[in-house]
Structures are given as C-alpha cells and as structure tokens.
Amino acid sequence: MADSRLSRRQFTTTAAVTVTGLTILPGGTLRGAANNKLNIALIGVHGRANAHYGALKHENVVALCDVNEKHLAHAAKTFPNAEHFVDWRKCLDKKGIDAVVCCTTDHTHAFVANWAMNRGLHVYCEKPLANTVEEARVVRATYLKNKDKLATQVGTQRHADVNFNRVRELILDGAIGKLKDVHAWGNRQIRRPGYLPAEGSPPSELHWDLWIGPSPMHPYNPGYYGGDKYRPGANCLQWNMYWDFGSGQVGDMGSHTMDLAYNALDADLPTSAEGEGEKFNPEVTPVELHTAFDLPANDWRDGVRLNWWQGGMMPRSPMSAVDLNKIGHGAMFKGDKGFVIADFRTRLLIPYGKGADMTYYNARSEQKLIPDMGNFQMQWINACKGDLKTSCDFDYSGKLIETMLLGLVAYRTGQRISYDAATGKTGNAQADALISRPYREGWTLNG
Ligand SMILES: NC(=O)c1ccc[n+]([C@@H]2O[C@H](COP(=O)([O-])OP(=O)(O)OC[C@H]3O[C@@H](n4cnc5c(N)ncnc54)[C@H](O)[C@@H]3O)[C@@H](O)[C@H]2O)c1
User: Fold this and answer.
1) DSSP annotation string for 188-254
2) I need a labelling partner for 299 at 20 to 30 A (CA). Which of 216, 219, 257, 287 fits?
3) Is any atom of ligand 1 closer than 6 Å to the C-beta of 260?
4) Is the CB of 45 under 6 A from ligand 1?
5) Class of 161-190+249-370+399-433 per CATH?
C-alpha cells in the first residue's frame, strides 16, 4: 500500500525548469511574466469567487468575466488592471492567459473547463465539475489528454483538512480490517416546488441570456438570481436545485462530503448504480435521496459498496449511542473488524465484531504519515508553475462526480443499472438518455 494518493497516481510529467524567473513548463511553453506570476482569468467574480481573491492577489489577474456588470466593478477594486468580459467564450480567447479560475453556476462549469483546457490553460473549477455524466466524462477525457501540460483542481478545499489524510491512513492501514461498505451523507434540505414564473425584468447590469447560457431558456425571475439588489453573491442555494442549473445536494455538499470517503478508496468508476428517494420532480432535483454503487476491487481491497445519502435519508448507526443524525455531513466506513465514522474535521474508530482486538492494525509511524497538503488554492497555483500535481485534479474529481451523477440517473429510472465505464453506457435506454442533457442552440460543450 502506498502512503498517499498522490504517490499512487501516475503523473508522467517532467519537472518544470525555471530560468531567471520565467517558467518553462513540461510542454515546452514559456509562461508568466518575468516575476513568475501567472496571468489569470477569473470567470464568475463575486460570491464564491471572493474566497479566491487572497490567493489571486499574488498573481496577475488579467481578465475578469461576469454576466453581472456590477460584480465586475466590485472585482475591479481588487484587480484594477484586468480586462472585462461578460461572455466567458470571448474571455477565453484573450491572448496571454495562463490559467483560469471558474466560479460560475454549475451548469457552465464543464463548458468553461473544457474550453479552457482546449486552449492550453490550467483550470481551477469550483465544485461540482459537471452537471451530467456526459459532461464529467468529457472534461475528464480532455484533462487526461492534456495532463502532461496542465494543472487542474476542483474546488473541494475541505480536502486540505488533515483529517482527510488521517481517515485514509486508518482505512489503508487496516484499522477496521477488510473494507466492505462506505457511506457518505449530507442533511441539507432546500425544497422548491418547480421552476419559477416570469417576474419583472433583469436589472440593467445583468446579462440574463448569458446567465442561462447553454441551458434551456427560462424567463427571468429574481428568485433564481437577482443581481445585487436582491443578494450580493453567494446565490448558489437559489438555483442549484433546478435540473437545468445544478444537481442539488449531489453536486453541492455531495462534492465535499463524498470527497472525504472517496479519498480513502482509490476508486474507479462503478459497475452499477441504483437510487431511491422522494417522488421524481422533472423540474427540481430530489431532497431525499439514497444512491448506491458497486465499486470494483483494486490492488489493495476487494470491491466495495459505496452509498450517498441526503436530505434526511441516513445509513444505520453501528451502535445506538452514536447518533449519525448529529453529524450533518459525514462518512462511515464499515470493515469486517469495525467502523470509522468521520466528519470533515474529526474521526471515530469503533472496533466491532468477532476478533476485533486491533492486533491486526499497524498504526504507521509519524515519519510515514501522509504529508499535509497545505493551502488548497496554493497547491494548484504552485502546480501550474511546477510539477502539475494537485490532489483534486479532473481525473480524481471527475470520477467522483461522474459516479454521483450516475446515481441521479439511476434514481430517475427507478431501476438498478449496470454501467460500462469504458463507454459510459448502461444498456438501459431510459438511463442512457439521461446521461446527457440538451443544450441551447449555439452552445458547444467541448469547443
Ligand atoms: N467550494 C466551496 O466551498 C463553495 C462554496 C460556495 C459556492 N461554491 C460553488 O461556486 C459556484 C458559484 O457559487 P455562488 O454562490 O458564488 O453563485 P452566484 O450565483 O452568486 O454566482 C457567482 C458569480 O458568477 C457570476 N456568473 C454566473 N453565471 C456566469 C456566467 N455564465 N459567466 C460569468 N459569470 C457568471 C455571477 O454573476 C456571480 O458574480 C457554484 O458552482 C458553487 O457550487 C463552492
């Protein structure tokens, strides 16, 4: 067993060479200004994007793109030298950009990520990386074609908490024996009846048609996204539950919480998926949901059953004294000798069952602990300038979100589906039709 996931994964990169402050990247490209700063385009500049300002201030932010012109003005106070765009497609054609940070709506993430990588740009993309199984597959394939040249990171910054490493070590080192079942859950519940009716007109600063982007057109309603007058940024909980704009808690907290479980699995794509929950609503993603997947065996463990629970649906606790409902967002690993239960910051080990005497557990020495990854955003920035290695690249995070989104497909069919990870097909016509979604004319996923 290897000590860290990074060291297990194959990076066929050669190290970057730095010559008098300029960086020659593995592809032979010369990047950045003489001071070795990246030229960055920030796409979606308010709300979540504010959390990136601190890291970006030390680079050259040369382009700002937002469908809300007031938000461009807000970001210009921090990044006064950047050119402004309202359409990310035009922004990505600006010459001299090295890297992109994307903090837009979920239904545009895979588009921005693909287009950016196709133009040779490193990408940091907020979670979730995609809104459909097909989008996840296309982004991952684009990344794998370019992984010797580009650094990518999905914005699951909780991954930097050292608890992620400690949980992984417990599982790998056999603290609960042979791993059998894995569960991750989240208790957030935001209910909406359906798409909103037309209401008023978009504020003059807001380019509504571009906000809708590739999704089917919906009439303006400030309940989706109203601009500054209604809520200055951080609107994702207004729109991410509508099928055309997000995947609800699957892509939202699911991206973070499944990461806590997935990080300990060295998982490949599942061979099957099933889902149950509240009655299907064609307009709004489910609040109550349980999805389950068969993950194939790998070189250190047998196949495992992976589960995602949300909106109040929960796995059973191994002991009545431990109330899993008190852990809002958590993960539980079941082995043949016990359980590990974790939230983002803490973990609990419960030896359980016959022979659970811990004699089989070889706790690792301090020297062999998985190294702390440091600041999450800085890992990507340093990777762009150096060895391209990140913890949540579009391969790891692409597989995670493809799995989660496949669960929504299974839920919608109401059937257990098998999955061929090589082709992205299920052999079930209804499920295969839900792997992708229609786009508005003029919008291309992989442009
Ligand atoms: N990593 C985290 O912990 C975390 C936390 C919150 C949000 N997020 C993610 O960040 C993203 C943004 O969330 P938010 O709450 O800031 O949303 P938001 O609706 O407030 O939008 C963020 C910004 O993007 C702009 N925007 C929207 N569509 C755009 C487009 N097509 N082109 C350019 N700009 C566009 C908006 O005008 C706004 O300035 C979401 O995908 C969300 O999942 C991540």
Assistant:
1) ------SSPPP-S---TTB-HHHHHTTSPP----TTT---TTT-SS--HHHHTTBTTT--GGGTTHH
2) 257
3) no
4) yes
5) alpha beta
